[in-house]
User: What shape does this take?
Amino acid sequence: MKCEELLTMLNEYVDGTVDPSICKEFEKHLAGCNPCQVVVDNIRQTITLYKDGQPYELPVAFREKLHAALRQRFVQLHR
Ligand SMILES: [Zn+2]
Assistant: This one.
């Protein structure tokens, strides 16, 4: 898996359509790529904080903000 593919998966994770933690390729990539680890930690924390343990969906506006923040952080760390 490439960094770009991981980013795509994270966007789907934000949308609630995929759980990247169940993907072996995803975990394998993270084990060897520090910038991606940081991005994933960030996004997980943000989602966890927002949901506060409740299983409701993130509003579209929040998801879009998260997508933008995610890409920005990703590009910064992968320069
Ligand atoms: Zn990576």
The mean pLDDT is 91.
